[in-house]
Amino acid sequence: MARLFGTNGIRGRVGDNLTAELALRIGASAGTFWGSGTAAVGTDCRDSGRMLSMAASAGLASTGLSVKDLGVVPTPALQYFVRAHGLAGGIVVTASHNPPEFNGLKCVSPDGTEMSRGEEVEIERFYESGIFRQADWRGIGSVSSDSGANAAYADGVVKTIASKKKLGIEIALDCGNGPSTFTSPRALRALGCNVQTLNAQPDGSFPGRLSEPTEDHLGDLIGLCKSGGFDLGVAHDGDADRAVFVDELGEYVSGDAELALMAKIALGRAGGGKVVVPIDTSRAIQELVEMEGGEVIYTKVGSPGIARRMMSIEAVLGGEANGGIIFPEFQFCRDGLYATAVLAREVAEGGKPLSKMVSVLPRRVMRRWKTPCPSERSDAVLAMLGREFANGTTLDGLLVEQKGHWVLFRPSGTEPIMRMTLEASSENELAHLFETYSTALTAAIEAVRL
Question: Are 166 and 142 within 8 A, CB to CB?
């Protein structure tokens, strides 16, 4: 059976492997899986979003489910709506940080989390079989619009943050021409922040900057913060489930530093607890968490698994080093606006500028690399590497931990590539080890081919 869902939903190039027909069949498959009730459908700002969301809605309605069309919404706003209204589930049309010619679909469970891999497999079974629940003419589901999801979500963030006074800080906010335009300025201003926006015009071609908020894409935001007068710079990705930050000096905060800082804030407020992160996370996070009296729990890569592990152990925080942080007091999904509100409150109430908060965090050096590897050969490649590095563990791929460094070899779930993540204590050590491990990986792929 072909795998449709990757680490975070289905992704593809529109008109190539991401079509209206696929969205229609995914809607019918999800509707058959959910069986009855009401589902929500929403989209980010991409030009292809409306076409695909209408197709997904039609597929859902054909199985007898009613559909709430939320229009253009951040992914966490749709997740908030599904859980708040007790719906059967939801589908959000988004390709997150990918370029505008891409789009995708994520399926959301009734509790607002992204579907588990087991649930995705059931959707894929219906999709492949083509056997869907088909309502007769009297049982076709209705499709109706609901324009209140963005306001309800933004107001929910404000209510949950519940600061005792207006925060009163200056924020430069780069919405990236995405759906955060409708939510983040509203919530941050309601919290008492003075907000200057960039790229706050919804536009699926992303004219202001590319949709992935990496440091090299955020020149305008960094320049604005360097000019002075701002306490915090914020940038969202294409569907606003992530946020990255720039400090008051105009310095970009790395994803590892952001995750460590959020863990420190959460542990401080909770008085300790567990933090859930994927296995490819910097061990600087573990050092920080243990310094704060907490415990790190590692999972496979992917936010759905992180969220479910958090729920099972009552963790105080979870997340990835890409700006996707999960705060269980609000909802069990990555949430860029809520992360921003948490950090804004800390800057306002903590008495320290962001640069000072970041400067005391533990640091490591890391390099990520990928190389072509046919999917059907990945298990054999990992087995060969496992024999070469005998102390490896296999939670997700092959993890080899040595004194002072670690390396993870992990096959992609959606592409014919092998990923390698390497962390060391210094740049010199990293360069030497990278040569050793990348050579070993390349040799294993070639040996399996022969």
Answer: no
